[in-house]
Structure of TetR family transcriptional regulator:
Amino acid sequence: MTSAQPKPPMREALVDAAFELFLARGYEQTTIDDIVTLAGVGRRSFFRYFPSKEDVVFPDHERCLADMTEFLAASADTDDPVARVCDAARLVLRMYAEKPAFSVQRYGLTRQVPGLRTYEVSVVWKYERTLAEYLRVRFADRPDGKLRANVLAASVVAAHNHALRDWLRAGGEGDPTEAVDQALSFVRQTWSPDSDGPGGGHAGAESEDVVVVITKRSTPMWRVVREVESSLGEN
Amino acid sequence: MTSAQPKPPMREALVDAAFELFLARGYEQTTIDDIVTLAGVGRRSFFRYFPSKEDVVFPDHERCLADMTEFLAASADTDDPVARVCDAARLVLRMYAEKPAFSVQRYGLTRQVPGLRTYEVSVVWKYERTLAEYLRVRFADRPDGKLRANVLAASVVAAHNHALRDWLRAGGEGDPTEAVDQALSFVRQTWSPDSDGPGGGHAGAESEDVVVVITKRSTPMWRVVREVESSLGEN
């Protein structure tokens, strides 16, 4: 083809050039000068978009973190906070799933370069902190609100990353949405909003449709039935 | 005092000198040369103990991580895995609690220097991974074993760090053990070993002593009773 193709924006051109070089000769062996030369731009252009070589490996996290913050800030008080942080985590999934090949290549790089792994872990921590900050406000009226917020945020991030990592390890084939949904529902079942949750007692309605009764095996049946009845609101 | 005091080992002398300088003039403004000069040793001695300036800020994590790995490797198959990872997390607490003033000073440094914060986050991730690896083996026979291991490890680390951070923010006063125990028991109540837990199906015996029944609110009472009966093993 000889016809001119539309040039990608400079930021994307830098990312493309960087990954081409990282994959061909290795991350450590690639300099910022190499990247700007291949992209056909000056050094200052690089630093206009990326503070360091590490940042070009994760070009979308900052935007995604901003999207997540905005998404959570737009929550209503009536929103289920657990569902909300799960949906917020799905924004990260979408970012990875939009560019499967790129995501898998980057996953390979982060396995090889300890500095990139550290960078990635610190990005994950920023997501976790963002979720926790939202939950802390939502759980402000609970005596264990902060602890609950921090542990729940960590659980959501761990579940999300578990499913995401499986998908990346499998080469980014297919749609990771279902696996992430399953992993997040595992967390939601522990932390369902209407449940009193750990330490809060399990008896009573867990949601509009579900009733949970926990009883000792030795409890006489008539007591169990009475508890079920009172949970169901029947007398 | 003019009598000669026993000299601390060189490694500790380097840590002491480093922190004296970090606190007096700032982390970024202190060079490795400054540290070795104050400690009265050569540059090569520094690098014998610490790969980088960052590592001198966290001199005990490597040992603690090794202790944790050893502690978990020494587990019996009969150990409650959830209790075991909570005990493993307490090794980290002990390391901080042994040197309250040092831990609080370091906490201040990690708030001020983003690079140290990143380093700390990557250390936390190593602890989490160590706990998760142990749990993955213990949960190997569960269909959701890996997910459960990863989420539980993240929960334990988040709860531990929540209580530890509170103690550090309060200036390291008093004994943080009780607060950490409370935070960990919050997690244990969610993830009690005999519970089928989230995703594992709630109907049926949760342990020898506890029966859990989950039913839709619209389920007729006779069906609920039948399910309770069959869970209890009565007919």
